[in-house]
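ESCALATION

Customer reports they have been waiting on this structure for their group meeting. Please prioritize. Original submission:
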Amino acid sequence: MKNRDVTATWKYHDRTKHSYWSIRNNPHVLDWTNRPLPFKIYPTLEPLPLPRDVPQTGVAGLSAISEPVLLSGANSVPTLQDLARILYFSAGITKQREHPAGKIYFRAAACTGALYEIELYVVTGDLPGLDAGVYHFNPADVALRLLRKGDYRGNLAQATAMEPAVARAPATIVCTGTYWRNAWKYQARTYRHFGWDSGTLLANMLAVSAASGLPAEIVLGFVDGDVNRLLDLDTRREVSLCLVPIGHTSESPLPSPREAPVLGLETIPPSENEVAYPAMFEMHDASSLESEEEVTQWRGKQPIFPSSALAGEAVRLQPLPHEEQPKDTIEQVILRRGSTRTFDKAASITLAQLSTILDCATRGLSADFLEPPGAQLNDFYLIVHSVQALKAGAYFFHRERNTLELLKEGELRAEAYHLGLEQELPADACVDIFFLADLKLILERYGNRGYRAVQLEAGAIGGRMYLAAYAQGLGATGLTFFDDDVINFFSPHATGKAAIFLVAIGKPLKRKSQ
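Update from on-call: job pushed to the front of the queue and completed.
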């Protein structure tokens, strides 16, 4: 089984690390004349427009992020309006801006380089207002396009080795990644971005599903080839990344798997020239599961990841009480969210605001690879610049104790500037949150697919941090980094770990009008 040969992950991870010298020795000039299309377009398929006048849920953003829907005995079936709300607030266009090379369409969830390489598909039974089928969602016209008519939920259930959340879901959303749309700018490092960018989108999807009263879960255990065939993907261009079952039924029998012949549907080429980066293909192939038996074994008993002992000076976090939390709905928060491009270096945030972000974002992700409930693959290390009632310095977040441990005290803006690929954003932010993980331990348990899991989890928790920050009137942005320099900076505490993700949080700089 290829998934167990973890040399593939180490090879990819090491080859795609950023360092001071790798950035300078590998200059990459963007070819704007060859920029990929931001949408997947099926020119011969008729659109099925989704309703655009969907009422808001009325659920506060912070509650939607941190309070998942619990399963009950009652059926929970999404309507067409529910699906429209979930799809739009996950991947819909919320604003657009003119650019010398054309328009940039900004979406509901953050994405590296605003390139939006994640596509969404829906596999559904008969729903109120929607016939059973396999559909593709196009954010450009907020419409579905029917790829296969009929109920193919049995195919997904079989591909997941009868994962209960999928087997009982009235509808399942499938996230895919399109290589070239992101590799145009980020080259082979794109496979890391698949996790980050699908994760931030999933943070929105889970929050809006919860606000809609619908249970949802991330499923990473599935036979890749079966799902790719169902969606009729050209796997040299696009691959399935994860499934998200939406809703729950307990009465109707699951349909049997159906034949899914090759469709060969016409799509518009993303750009005139596509450049292949074999390292991405090799990494995905090595992390793919090939049979139901392998899925069952992969999903088996989960380990309990060890927690660090508290050694240094500690500060207990103080999240805002529920009654004092902002009441803006999750839809309002998503519509005003955007990656902050400039922070106000003179501003500060409160300890309660930081505490609320960490509390809401880390309460436990609903995913088939995280057991027992509340388990987590990523650890969090912070560089604090200007948080009221908190010393400037580097910290480790003890999630079980809801406590920050001071690792080193002092002004560290210059260090943050360097670690964040010599960008001003992490130096000007109020706090930088670095995601680090024990990659060796993760690969021992999950195989190469653990790399997909840890990157996706980082993106999803990072996406929750974005939402929790914007819900409180703050700004946030995801950043890349010099991998080994991050580990060296936080060592000896971080010795043996790998740098996964970085989120900077602060107050956006309000520019004076001319």
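Sent to customer with the following note: The first strand starts at residue 48 and ends at 49.
Escalation resolved.
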